[in-house]
Amino acid sequence: MKSYTITVNGVAYDVTVEENKDSVAKAPVAPAKPVAKPAAKQTQAPVAKSSGAGSIKVAAGAAGKVFKVEKNVGDSVNKGDTVLIIEAMKMEIPVVAPEAGTVASIDVKVGDAIEAGATLATLN
Q1: Cα(first)–Cα(last) distance of the chain, in Å?
Q2: Is 19 helix (H, G, I), strand (E, B) or coil?
């Protein structure tokens, strides 16, 4: 059996897959359930917030590295707008605004290693 964490639309799912030696796939026993991931311990020096922290957190859906910061402090965003992009398993994954607002802080920089669930930015 192998375990994987799959992120769909920002929600992490822990999935266990049974390896089948036969060529016929078996039906899953139970549907996957969302898993709350604890915020990771910070492994790098803290990054100073660009301005006051906002009340809306923009969190990472998967562990990886910050690839590109798309928005700056003070930029207006709509729900679903890309705030930054992380690279995980050689894929670029957009991290989007959970709701409309103004970027209050960007808490990471390009190249930072991040864990799933970590706060990357905040909005007001």
Answers
A1: 44
A2: coil
